[in-house]
């Protein structure tokens, strides 16, 4: 097998560390402790001769020798290792608590994006269960360059992916997956506004109500959902393949400077929804200019931007707590005023 890919530690986190660090939500000591426990389990598993990761690498991976295993980051959700072999390197993520379904969703998203032949993503090789409990995914190891690459190239290639892959099933995906560690429901739906209202905004609002008893954000959010149709007047909406969680930690470049995106939460949706994490992505003018040359800007784009931010602010609220509530509520209140709802 060719010498393939390194993914960064960012690919193992549940959401945007840059954003969470602003709120002091990523204590290093906790990360180290969690990573250490995951590594210990892998060591015990290897000692017992019950290691499906090594077994796959030494059979289907075409390696005859594993020359080293090193940790390359992770957190309390996933642990990440680089396996060096005589057939090249492999990137492996493991989770001690969750079964294969989470990684199966990630693998299907990666393979679907890979098959568009547009923007580079790590190719998944194998998902399975660990005998000690939990699951793993083995994928291509991409050696990263020193920067995130050219913004204009990123914009163009992302637009090419959106343009190349459109679903005839409607909006959704082949399986449910996760956004961070939050379940993401991808039931096929014919209408985009219905899909986004029910399976994105509505689902997050219900979580906030259940977790925090937040009736205020739930009730205002539901009012917004009932009144969003005018925001889409004049827009041509198609079910494009989306990465789904495109923030700075999931964007890099290879050693040739070509952009790489990873750790997806894929589904088919309105292409503008891809910019929902732009508040933590650093997209600049060159990115958008290049993107819109391939996927023309639709009428009302500016009016809808915050609607797509809202999904991710709500998700961060549900994952990390009240530090994100005010941003979500501010967007809801602004729209209610704009729509006179």
Automatic annotation (TrEMBL):
Cross-referenced InterPro entries: Fructo-/Ketosamine-3-kinase (IPR016477)
Q: What chemistry does it catalyse, as a reaction equation? A: N(6)-(D-erythrulosyl)-L-lysyl-[protein] + ATP = N(6)-(3-O-phospho-D-erythrulosyl)-L-lysyl-[protein] + ADP + H(+); N(6)-D-ribulosyl-L-lysyl-[protein] + ATP = N(6)-(3-O-phospho-D-ribulosyl)-L-lysyl-[protein] + ADP + H(+)
Q: Name one GO molecular function term.
A: ATP binding
* Cellular component terms (Gene Ontology): cytoplasm
Top EC class of this enzyme: transferase
Q: Where do transmembrane segments lie in this chain? A: none
Keywords from UniProt, A to Z, are:
ATP-binding, Chloroplast, Kinase, Nucleotide-binding, Plastid, Transferase
- Which compartments does it reside in? Plastid, Chloroplast
**EC number(s) reported in the record:** 2.7.1.172
What is the superkingdom listed in this entry's lineage?
Answer: Eukaryota
Say where the protein is mainly found: plastid
Function of the protein: Initiates a process leading to the deglycation of proteins. Phosphorylates low-molecular-mass and protein-bound erythrulosamines and ribulosamines, but not fructosamines or psicosamines, on the third carbon of the sugar moiety. Protein-bound erythrulosamine 3-phosphates and ribulosamine 3-phosphates are unstable and decompose under physiological conditions.
PANTHER family according to UniProt = FRUCTOSAMINE 3 KINASE-RELATED PROTEIN (PTHR12149), PROTEIN-RIBULOSAMINE 3-KINASE (PTHR12149:SF8)
Family the UniProt entry places it in: Belongs to the fructosamine kinase family.
| Listed name of the protein | Protein-ribulosamine 3-kinase, chloroplastic
Give the species. Zizania palustris (Northern wild rice)
Traced from the root, the source organism's taxonomic lineage reads:
Eukaryota, Viridiplantae, Streptophyta, Embryophyta, Tracheophyta
């Amino acid at each position: 097998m060719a010498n393939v890919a390194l993914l960064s530690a960012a690919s193992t986190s549940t959401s945007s560390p840059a954003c969470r660090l602003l709120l002091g939500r990523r204590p290093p000591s906790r990360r180290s402790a969690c990573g250490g426990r995951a590594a210990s389990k892998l060591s015990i598993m290897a000692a017992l001769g019950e290691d499906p990761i090594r077994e796959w690498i030494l059979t289907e991976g075409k390696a005859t020798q594993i020359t080293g295993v090193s940790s390359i980051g992770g957190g309390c959700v996933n642990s990440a290792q680089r396996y060096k072999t005589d057939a090249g390197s492999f990137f492996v993520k493991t989770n001690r608590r969750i079964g294969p379904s989470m990684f199966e969703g990630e693998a299907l998203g990666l393979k679907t994006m890979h098959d568009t032949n547009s923007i580079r993503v790590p190719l998944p090789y194998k998902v399975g269960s660990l005998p000690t409990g939990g699951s793993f995914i083995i994928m291509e190891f991409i050696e990263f360059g020193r920067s995130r690459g050219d913004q204009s190239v990123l914009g163009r290639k992302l637009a090419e992916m959106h343009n190349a892959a459109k679903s005839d099933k409607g909006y959704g995906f082949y399986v449910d997956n996760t956004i961070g560690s939050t379940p993401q429901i991808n039931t096929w739906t014919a209408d985009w506004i219905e899909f986004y209202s029910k399976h994105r905004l509505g689902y997050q609002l219900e979580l906030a109500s259940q977790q925090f008893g937040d009736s205020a954000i739930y009730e205002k959010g539901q009012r917004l959902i009932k009144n969003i149709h005018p925001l889409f007047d004049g827009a041509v909406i198609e079910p494009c393949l989306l990465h789904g969680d495109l923030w700075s930690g999931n964007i890099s470049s290879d050693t040739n400077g070509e952009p790489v995106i990873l750790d997806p939460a894929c589904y088919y949706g309105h292409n503008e929804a891809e910019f929902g994490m732009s508040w933590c992505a650093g997209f600049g003018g060159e990115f958008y200019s290049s993107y819109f040359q391939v996927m023309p800007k639709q009428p009302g784009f500016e009016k809808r931007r915050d609607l797509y931010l809202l999904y991710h602010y709500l998700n961060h609220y549900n994952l990390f707590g009240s530090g994100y509530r005010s941003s979500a509520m501010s967007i809801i209140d602004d729209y209610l005023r704009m729509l006179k709802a």
